[in-house]
Amino acid sequence: MYISNNQITIPDPDTIVWKYLDLSKFLDLLFCRQLFMSRSDKFEDQYEGTFSEPTFEEIKKISEHNRQFLDYYKSHRKNVVISSWHINEYESYAMWQIFTKNNEGLAIQSTIGRLQEALGPENRYDQHIGEVKYIDYKKEYIPFNDTFFPFLFKRKSFQYEREVRIISDLTEHHLNINEGVKANVDINQLIEKIYIHPKSENWYKNLVIQLMQQLGFDFKIEKSDLESDILI
Asked: Which residues pair with 39 in a beta bridge?
């Protein structure tokens, strides 16, 4: 389902999204037919799933007479898992640089609508989709009337990510989550197109195609715009 709130942006179903990843993670996705979702407190950003200063001050006041209220938010992050996607009409040179190495890797192109359909009703985890809002954590307020809201706000320093997230709260499943979990997904619905790293060698491109075919997939592979010939 979509997360809705007047402070949360709900992407249009036709919004184009991307996931940049290395070959091993891509093959794991195809082989297992499951989408890996990272535990939220394992992200590089230490503020992940926390609150801005104005919100935290309000929470502290509430917790003066209810200590469990604050303890809940401190421990909640380890039960929330996230799959991050990048919103962009076009492929991003910056995302290639950040998420792939040695001129190798792939980008999955999809849409918000396809993500929603791919997750489907048969998944054992409830998934919610929302676009991240980037704010000043010293001045702006993060609502806490929904347990997902802290995971849909990030500091302005991360605006370049243009992130949309698939989020699951697994508290009720009582799982011992290490790095994350794998959620069932319809791979053919999830992936609309594949882009192979624009600076990769031909042998690498052929390897990716061959491995996909051996696993029974025939995704449309687009030529990267970054490979286009100059006109002069």
From this structure: 81
